[in-house]
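pinging the channel bc i need a second pair of eyes. not urgent but kinda urgent?? the chain im working w is below, pasted from the shared doc
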Amino acid sequence: MEEVNLPYVEYMRSLTLLIMASEISSFHEDFKAEDYGEYVRGRLELGKIIYATEYIKAQRIRALMYKEFLKVMKKIDIIVTPTTPIVAPKIGQKSVNIDGKEFNVRAIIPIFTSPFNLLGFPAISLPCGFSSSGLPIGIQMVGRPFEEDTVLRVAEAYEKSTEWFKREP
C-alpha cells in the first residue's frame, strides 16, 4: 500500500459541473421547470448557457486528465479513498465546517467520487464504520477502466474480512 497523488483533482468539480450541466440540459431540453426541484432546475438552466466551444474544451481536458490518471494507475491495482469527506448532512443543511473552513455541502460530498465518475473509472463504495454520532462511513475502491472484475474481487475480499455491512445505524 502506498499513498498516491492524483493529478488535477482540484479542477474536477468545475469540469464535472460544466459537462454534466451541458449534457443534462441537452437531454431534458423540453423540461418543464415546475417538474424539477430547485437544485436540478439550476443545473438545467446552467446547461442552457454553456457554449458548445466550452463543452468541447471541457471534453478535451477530460481526455487529458484520463491519460494522466491512467499513468498513476499503471503501477497500482486499486485506489482507496473515503466515499465522502463528511457523514450524511442533516436535511436542508447548506454548509459544513471542515478544519475551520466552510464548504457548500453539495460541492464537498462528491469530492472523492466525481473524478472517477467523470473519467469513467470503475468504483464501488462499501461500509467501513460509523461516526461518533452513529452515522455510516463509506470506503471507495477504484480500479482501472474495464477492470471492474478487480474492483469487485477486492471489494468482496474486504467485505469477507469485515462485518461492517452487517451493522445498521
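so The first helix runs from residue 9 to 27. and The chain is about 45% helix and 15% strand. — does that match what u expected or am i reading it wrong
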